[in-house]
Amino acid sequence: MLTPTLISSHRPRGFTLVELLLVLGATLLVVAMGMSAYRTYTVRAEIAASLASAAGVQGSVAAAFRRAGVPPADRQSAGLSADGRIEPATVIDSIEVANGRIEIHFGPGADSAIAGRTLSLTPFETADQQIVWICGNKIPSVGLNPLGFAGGARQAVQVLTTIEGRYLPSTCR
CB atoms < 10 A from the CB of 92, how many? Predict the structure, then answer.
């Protein structure tokens, strides 16, 4: 009777260097993508907070326009203090008013993607003189005219932002 011979197959255990490098490379790629997504999220959060901070200024500009019939030329014309600086300057350095347009200036405490840059909120009016605010690079809808257009007064002029579109909220793109 023949006895089967045992053939010893010795297989190495563990990972090869190539397999380890592939896993390491894939892990680094996922981490890099996650960090980029997180940075985009935090910058958008800073911008969203700045837009919320400007809400009171929007109300003041609208009220001044309804009183005088022209967009306010500056902060004082809008019934605000002359100094638009925010203390302590963290994300926002200042909020200014220029012919009805609100300019949010980001300070050194903001993420480097937006520090030193400006985001504008431009008021437009509808045919029935409702005020609609357009943020950043968003294109106004048909039927909207710059604030002051209906009365033939000075008008708010939209200024495009230099902040990258990926950081802007969808309402500003």
Answer: 21
Per-residue pLDDT of the chain (173 residues; tens, 9 = 90+): 555 555 556 666 777 888 889 999 999 999 999 898 999 999 999 999 999 999 999 999 999 999 998 999 999 999 998 887 776 668 999 999 999 999 999 999 999 999 999 999 999 999 888 999 999 999 999 999 999 888 787 888 999 999 999 999 988 98
Domains of the chain, first to last: 25-172 (3.30.700.10)
SS (H, E, C) the chain: CCCCCCCCCCCCCCCCHHHHHHHHHHHHHHHHHHHHHHHHHHHHHHHHHHHHHCHHHHHHHHHHHHHHCCCCCCCCCCCCCCCCECCCCCCEEEEEEECCEEEEEECCCCCCCCCCCEEEEEEEECCCCCEEEEECCCCCCCCCEECCCCCCCCCCCCCCCCCCHHHCCHHHC
Tell me how far apart the terminal alpha carbons of the chain are, to the nearest angstrom.
Answer: 84
Residue whose entry in the numeric block shows the structure tokens 């409702």 = 130
pTM above 0.70, yes or no: yes
Q: Which two tokens stand for residue 110?
A: 């903001």
